[in-house]
């Protein structure tokens, strides 16, 4: 099975606070990796380094065989020009905890924006594709609404459609249900499960243990900037090897 | 609320079963009525004194209201305002961009500009520019007094002053846009240019338009200061007339009424502009 994301000894500090202390992780094509861990464990930061929203201090990240944000020449890494980084990002979808939909644009324009301006698709084609995607997340009738007229769950589904519009090779989810009312969590998880069934490669940072158990191929438990353990959900969730994992799970289950 | 608590409420002592048919009598607001009447009486007295005081000479006001000299002055006031606003906001936007950039030199220079030009009263600045020939008698081989006439000095002085304030207004607008908006645009691969024009600026405009509208009205009236360097704006035009005819009050009224009319029109324009940029901000429709 080919490796989609290859993270090697990634370090990252904010000022004097080291949030990633050497992360190694491989995500295989077509698999769902769920990252669990307490707040401040570095899981969101790790996710954000994968599409270069955060620069790493040390280590490398490759997606689909290409280094993210850098070009290697000899034994040096040269930072890529912004244009190149933006092009790489169009192949990596990112879904934010707070949706970050563009409030001044309609739902349809939110989805159409990136294919038209970043991929130079003809607008008509992009609109058709966007309507299909909105239909897929169950929001075909909301195309002309503005984001603030939607519920949180609907907004997050639009955000997923917006990420899918670039036809990414990889989808990253940063706590996609943490900002939602409990009754709205299900509708968003259903969309993500549906994507998982279709073989989309995904990394999901979440607190939803049930979702991890059901959907994940690999569960990664992080604490204090390190990966404590990883493996199939049956191992990590039901028979954790480390005390830290056990105590975390006992608190959230 | 459960039906149990409802039942208890309706059986409270003194409240009959048919509680929903009891009429509600609003509290009497004596204070509000007294205040309203007092204000109306004062207002009536003021209007009466204005209309009945012959010294206002409303017939003279009417005579001069649309004379060529006054209209030429009004026209200069209008285009001077437009030019100063436009140049001021272009320069202000550049200053705001510099202030928010990652480059420490640009940031400091922008900060210094705003500090300096907000510190100098506009009147002092206009007089300085008007007398710049004393410092630099020649600019690029041309005599400074020939190069910088009163109107040019007015444009330069007012623009530099305006830009300092515009920079702060634009910067505030940009800062009001949620950081997540820029990250989302970056994650979608939108170019820097596209992020700025399509995502940040339209959202920043919501916070920029109200203070910018204030500044526009302030600038319109503020241009009257150029009368001190003999630029024939609306105020200076009526001054030229009353220096000749000694009808000071009616001619000042001509200027007053024109300033009020233009300000009102601008206010209406601002209302529609604000509505335009409020798109998508209402929760329900």
Give descriptors for this structure:
heterodimer; A: 253 residues; alpha/beta; six-stranded mixed beta sheet; four-stranded antiparallel beta sheet; B: mainly alpha; MetI-like fold; two-stranded antiparallel sheet; 73% helix; 1% strand
What topology does this entry show?
The complex is a heterodimer of chains A (253) and B (285).
Chain A: E1 3-14, E2 17-28, E3 32-36, H1 43-50, E4 58-63, E5 66-67, E6 70-73, E7 76-79, H2 82-89, E8 92-95, H3 107-117, H4 123-136, H5 152-164, E9 170-174, H6 182-197, E10 202-205, H7 209-215, E11 218-223, E12 226-231, H8 233-238, H9 243-252
Parallel strand pairs in A: 3-10, 3-11, 8-9, 9-10
Antiparallel strand pairs in A: 1-2, 1-4, 4-5, 6-7, 11-12
Helix pairs in contact in A: 3-4, 3-5, 4-5, 5-6
Chain B: H1 3-10, H2 30-52, H3 58-65, H4 68-100, H5 104-119, H6 122-130, E1 138-139, E2 142-143, H7 144-147, H8 150-175, H9 179-187, H10 192-222, H11 234-245, H12 248-277
Helix pairs in contact in B: 3-12, 4-5, 4-8, 4-10, 4-11, 5-8, 6-8, 8-10, 9-10, 10-12, 11-12
Question: How would you portray this structure in words?
Answer:
The complex is a heterodimer of chains A (253) and B (285). Chain A is 37% helix and 28% strand. Chain A is α/β, with parallel strands linked by helices and 253 residues long. Chain A has a domain at 101-167. In chain A, the strands form three sheets. Chain A has a six-stranded mixed β-sheet, sandwiched between helices. A four-stranded antiparallel β-sheet of chain A has the order 2-1-4-5, covered by helices on one side. In chain A, strands 6-7 form a two-stranded antiparallel sheet. The radius of gyration of chain A is 18 Å and the shape is globular. The model of chain A has no long low-confidence stretch (mean pLDDT 94). Chain B has 285 residues and is mainly alpha-helical. Chain B has a domain at 68-248: MetI-like (MetI-like fold, Orthogonal Bundle). Helix content of chain B is 73%, strand content 1%. Chain B contains twelve helices and two strands. Chain B has helices spanning 3-10, 30-52, 58-65, 68-100, 104-119, 122-130, 144-147, 150-175, 179-187, 192-222, 234-245, 248-277; strands at 138-139, 142-143. In chain B, strands 1-2 form a two-stranded antiparallel sheet. In chain B, a hairpin with a 2-residue loop joins strand 1 and strand 2. Chain B is flat. The chains are: A alpha/beta (253), B mainly alpha (285). Chain B: It comes from Streptomyces canus. Chain B: It is a multi-pass membrane protein.
């Amino acid at each position: 099975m080919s490796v989609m994301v290859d993270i090697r000894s990634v370090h990252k500090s904010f000022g004097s606070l080291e949030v990633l202390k050497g992360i190694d992780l491989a995500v295989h094509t077509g698999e769902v990796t769920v990252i669990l861990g307490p707040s401040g464990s570095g899981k969101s930061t790790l996710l954000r380094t994968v599409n270069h929203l955060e620069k790493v201090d040390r280590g490398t990240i490759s997606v689909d065989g290409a280094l993210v944000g850098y070009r290697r020449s000899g034994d040096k890494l040269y930072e890529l020009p912004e244009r190149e980084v933006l092009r790489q990002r169009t192949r990596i979808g990112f879904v934010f905890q707070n949706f970050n939909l563009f409030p001044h644009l309609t739902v349809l324009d939110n989805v159409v924006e990136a294919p038209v301006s970043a991929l130079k698709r003809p607008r008509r084609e992009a609109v058709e594709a966007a309507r299909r995607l909105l239909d897929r997340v169950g929001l075909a009738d909301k195309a002309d609404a503005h984001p603030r007229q939607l519920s949180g769950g609907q907004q997050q589904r639009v955000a997923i459609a917006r990420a899918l519009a670039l036809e990414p090779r990889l989808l990253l989810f940063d706590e996609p249900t943490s900002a939602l009312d409990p009754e709205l969590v299900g509708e968003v998880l259903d969309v993500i499960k549906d994507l998982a069934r279709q073989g989309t490669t995904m990394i999901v940072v979440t607190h939803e243990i049930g979702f991890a158990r059901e959907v994940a191929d690999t569960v990664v438990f992080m604490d204090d900037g390190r990966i404590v353990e990883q493996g199939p959900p049956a191992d990590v969730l039901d028979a954790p090897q480390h005390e830290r994992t056990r105590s975390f799970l006992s608190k959230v289950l | 609320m459960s039906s149990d608590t409802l039942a208890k409420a309706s059986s409270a002592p003194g409240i009959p079963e048919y509680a929903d048919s009891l009429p509600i009598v609003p509290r009497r607001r004596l204070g509000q009525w007294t205040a309203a009447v007092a204000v109306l009486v004062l207002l009536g007295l003021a209007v009466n004194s204005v209309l009945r005081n012959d010294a206002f000479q409303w017939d003279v006001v009417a005579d001069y209201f649309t004379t060529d000299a006054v209209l030429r002055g009004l026209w200069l006031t209008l285009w001077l305002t437009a030019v100063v606003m436009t140049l001021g906001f272009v320069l202000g936007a550049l200053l705001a961009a510099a202030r928010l950039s990652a480059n420490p030199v640009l940031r400091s220079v922008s900060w210094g500009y705003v500090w300096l030009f907000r510190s100098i009263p506009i009147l002092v600045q206009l007089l300085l520019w008007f007398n710049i020939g004393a410092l630099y008698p020649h600019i690029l081989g041309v005599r400074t007094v020939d190069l910088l006439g009163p109107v040019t000095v007015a444009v330069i002085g007012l623009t530099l002053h305006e830009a300092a304030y515009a920079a702060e207004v634009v910067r505030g607008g940009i800062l009001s846009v949620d950081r997540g908006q820029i990250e989302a645009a970056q994650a979608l691969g939108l170019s820097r240019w596209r992020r700025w024009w399509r995502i940040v600026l339209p959202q920043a405009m919501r916070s920029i338009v109200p203070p910018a509208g204030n500044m526009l009205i302030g600038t319109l009236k503020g241009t009257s200061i150029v009368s001190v360097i003999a630029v024939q704006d609306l105020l200076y035009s009526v001054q030229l007339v009353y220096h000749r005819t000694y009808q000071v009050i009616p001619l000042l009224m001509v200027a007053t009424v024109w300033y009020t009319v233009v300000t009102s029109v601008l206010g209406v324009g601002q209302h529609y502009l604000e509505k335009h940029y409020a798109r998508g901000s209402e929760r329900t429709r």
